[in-house]
Structures are given as structure tokens and as C-alpha cells.
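Components:
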Amino acid sequence: MATATAFDVTAIRADFPILGTSVHGKPLVYLDNAATTQKPRAVIQALTDYYESSNANVHRGVHYLSGRATDLFEGARTRIGRFVGAANPKEIIFTRNATEGINLVAQAWGRSNVRAGDEVLISAMEHHSNIVPWQMLCAEQDATLRVIPMSDAGELDLDAFERLLTPRTRIVAVTALSNALGTVNPVEQMTKAAHAAGAIVLVDGAQAAYHMPVNVQALDCDFFVLTGHKVYGPTGIGILYGKAALLDAMPPWQGGGDMISSVTFERSTWNTLPYKFEAGTPDIAGVVGLGAAVDYVTAIGMDRIEAWERDLLAYGTQALLDVPGLRLIGTASRKASILSFVMDGIHPHDLGTIVDRGGVAIRTGHHCAQPVMERLGIPATARASLAMYNTPEEIDALVTALHRAREVFG
Amino acid sequence: MSELTDLYQEVILDHNRRPRNFRAIEHPSAAQEGYNPLCGDRLTLYVTVADGRIADVAFQGSGCAISKASASLMTEAIKGKTVEEARALFDQFHEMITSPPGSPLPEMGKLAVLSGVRDFPTRVKCAGLAWHTMKAAVSDRPAAPVTTE
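Structure:
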């Protein structure tokens, strides 16, 4: 592989304790990264260190530890903001995950900006998390949900997109990278078109964040969500990026401590950004862990990670196409290292069980994207999603396991 | 890998390739849908009950080998049985696929080929789908589509 000398995958793998473990007596081959990525020691250690030497509540006490915890928490916010290219850390709102970020926008922004007769535009390849919150909003506001169609290869129809943008379109919510198909969408170009039509844009970056460099200012999107556990961080922590002017104009979402500046029984006033949207004690350790995760990938370089994964994708695509009876699902010209496929005569769920016995973890099912499956006329796919620590040898292990499945099914 | 060949025995692969009673029944006593959201397995079970006996049973749908073979074997096993006998068989089958690995198995005849499922906890729902659907189909109250989640 072209980048093999520049990219020390062996050293990276050594940073991930779980990659040295076995499953069913076989070395673990973890190819389910689109569901969640594994955690480097630096992240695991950051969580332990935080609880062992810095644990206290943030933004409250005058005591030493509270100040220390607050510094760690806000320091992580600054670095995470830099990781996505935000202009100001106050534009980074901590959430539980990408789903919560989308729900926050759908409710806090949506309820005061989407009215009867308005339209919300999503795409045919959205994860359920970028469909259902908008459906709920549209039902509540008597607005209409429109869907940008896609081709059989899994590419959005951009002409149709332009036609679907009307003066009624209030927001376009689209994924930067399809979890089920691997398609990389031209979100920068789509954002331009949406803005020209007077709509704002939310980009679902849950998948993109661990595959490629992200810069929200270059994208010029209005909102961007990601989840920490897919970018080598802990579960239960994610971010919503929003342009400060939009966030400032929005009403709060959840009420409680930390999000207020003053409370009386008659009325309360809201805290400034980002705290207005962070009611209650946050997942402080999760934020610290996510900070360690972005430090880790930043030190390696997202551009180098992207290049390594591009080589893996090319190798994996060819290796899978060489398996008789295998059909790739998602063949867009611009793809990240996600390989969805079906095999003649073997249901994906059976494939998943058989390759699991070979130590290979893949996802099977509809990948929380049932409309994608329906559009392509298949009930489910098997999916190998590759991350920076995967190797060509692991793809070979998958291929061997797929041949085993063909033997079992005769 | 021996557990794999226990799971995917020849009988199961045969019923997957050539499912028995894989058809619709035109005027059934009940047509019940079953769905497993985890893997997308989906089937419709048709049952004709006459004088408390399952006179005919058939199914259609798509799913993994385990769910399809289980449905196919079930139709063979319950055809001609009374509704009460079919319910009792449901209980026995359920016990077989959920009992701890290594524990004694109930006497299940041909259905015993599905006992390997108990070594694969993530696949128990696949084997159980048709059976849960059948239980709903022969119940007195019409039910919403059965899901295994």
C-alpha cells in the first residue's frame, strides 16, 4: 500500500487494548466501526485520570477541584471546537450523541422557525436519527418533510435537490457520509445551494468525523452534529456545533441548572452560550475523554487517516468483488471506507453469525436506515466499516470468513 | 467451527433453500404478520382452523436461513395438530432454544435440528419469529403484527 511507510498502523493498533483480544479463539478483527469505534489507551486513561485526580462538578464550587474539573472541561471544549473548525468554543454545545444534537435543533430551532406549510428537506440516505426528529417536528407544526432522491449507486440526485429547494424550504438536514452506503455527499456545494434558496443547513457528521477532516467554517453549514464514540471517544457524549447568531436567537431546549443566569419563582433568565443549552450536570468525564480522543486523532492527522482508509477501501473493494456471488451495495464515485454487501443465497444475518465465528465483527441488518433498504429493494445488508487501525490482512480475514460461509451454505 | 455446523445442519439448509408450505392460503382463519426489526426478517403466517384443529398452515416472507427453516419446519410440525397441541409445542420449542447450552434437551423430533440455536443467543429471535407469530395467529384475540423486539 502506498502510504504504508508513512502510516504506522502497527503502532496505532498497539494503542488500542481491545485489538489484542480474541473472539471465539480467533484474533479479533473489528470491522464494525460505523456502529462504534474502539478506544485508544489515551482515552481510557483520561477517563481514569479524571475520576482519580480531578473529579468535581463544573461551573460551581470555589474549591480547588471544581476549578480543575472546569478547566479540563472547558479546555476540551476548545480543542473539540478546533477539531471541527469552529470559530469560537461557545458554538460547541455538549450533547449525549449526534441524535440528541439533531433533536435539539429540530425542537429549539424548529418550533420557532418552521410553520404550517413550510418544508424540511432531508435525503434518501439518512440515518433514522436524521429522519424521525424532523417527522416529529413536521407533524407538530403541520409542515412537510421532503426527501432528496438517490440513484441505485447511492448518490444523491443534485438536480432533484435544486428543484426541491423552494421558498418554503426552511432547513436542509443531510448526512456528510452515509452509514449504510459509504457515500460522501457534497455538503459544501449543497449548503451553498440551500443558502441561496434561503434555507439553513444541518450536517449530520456522525460518520464523517472519524473518516475525514471536518471544517464547519469551510462547509459554512449552520449546524453540525457528531457523536464522540464514533471518533474513538467514550459513549454518551457528542456535540452540536451551531453558528453563534442562530444559537443566540433560539430559545433554550431543556431547563435546569447551569442553563440559567437567574431564577425566581416568577421568571428565569437564560445563561449565555454555550451554557444556555447545557442544562444539568454534564458528562464531564465524557467530555474529557472526547478531548483526549480528538487530541489522539489530531496528532496522527485526519488527512493521513483519510489517505490510509482510502487505500483500505480500494483494497477491500477489490477483495470483496473477487468473492463469487457478492454484490456491493453503495458504489458512489466518492466513498469512505464502508463496504455494504449482499451475497447470493445467504442472508446477511447468517453471514454475520458465520464470520463472527471466525473472529470477524461486521454489522448486518438495515443499519438504522430502513428507507435506504426499501429504496434499493433489499431487506438488509452485511457491512464492513473500516477505521484507521484496520489492515489489508484483516480484510483478507473477512474474505476467508465469507468463503467459509459459502462452504457452509454449499 | 463445529457449533456452526450444528447451527447450519443440512436439514436447516434444505428448508432454507426449499421452504415447505411456502405459499399463501386464500381464505385462512387467520393471517398474522411477524417481524424481527433487528435483521428485517418478515413473514406472514396463514392458518386455517377447523373443529379446533389446524387443517392448513402456510407462510410467505423473507428472512435468514434460521427464521425461514424454523417457519418451514413449524408448518410441517403443527399441521393436523389441535390448537392446544400447537400451543404446547410452542412452549417446548421455546424452552429448547432458550435453555442454557449443555442442559438436557426436550424430546422434539425433527424440530431438534434447531436446538443449536441456543449456542447463538443473538439468533434465538430468528428461530422464534414464526412460532411467536403462530401463537398470535391461533389466539382468540386478533393481534397487531408480532415483533420479536
